[in-house]
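Q: Given only this backbone (164 positions), what sequence would you predict?
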């Protein structure tokens, strides 16, 4: 079984007394009408995720998380704390169809600068859109169980420690 090591970030900011989190929408393909029962060309519900990606050779997990956040959202952030590692197995839907054991280190990050969704054209292949979502709604909106857990941990952390 192949192993992959990735890192990502839960980027938060407090605006007008509310906590917000940066999230990305994955590109969706228009679904044929016969498959969905909808009009041709309509898009399925967006898949909302946390910014994350593979740790490059020689790179530390935190460095990868900060880089992935910058590349996938257009914003820069600084470390607050490490949240946790999530582990899961998936089957590649491309190429060899191999099973992959994946570990993703997630960090709680504080927004520093930049405009969300300010992405390069090349990044639009991976990310349809980056946007702010209310942190208290994030666990309901995110697509994947492990990422929902990270959003809950981030919310707990900021509620307990208003000073961040």
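A: Predicted residues:
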């Amino acid at each position: 079984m192949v192993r992959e090591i990735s890192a990502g970030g839960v980027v938060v900011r407090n605006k007008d007394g509310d906590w917000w989190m940066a999230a990305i929408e994955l590109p969706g393909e228009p679904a044929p009408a016969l498959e969905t029962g909808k009009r041709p060309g309509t898009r399925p519900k967006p898949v909302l995720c946390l910014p994350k990606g593979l740790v490059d050779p020689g790179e530390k997990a935190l460095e990868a998380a900060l880089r992935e956040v910058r590349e996938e959202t257009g914003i820069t952030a600084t470390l607050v704390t490490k949240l946790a590692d999530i582990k899961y197995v998936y089957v590649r839907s491309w190429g060899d169809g191999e099973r992959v054991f994946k570990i993703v280190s997630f960090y709680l990050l504080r927004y520093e600068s930049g405009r969300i969704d300010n992405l390069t054209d090349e990044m639009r292949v991976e990310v349809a859109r980056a946007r702010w979502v209310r942190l208290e709604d994030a666990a309901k909106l995110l697509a994947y169980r492990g990422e929902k857990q990270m959003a809950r941990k981030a919310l707990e952390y900021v509620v307990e420690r208003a000073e961040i």
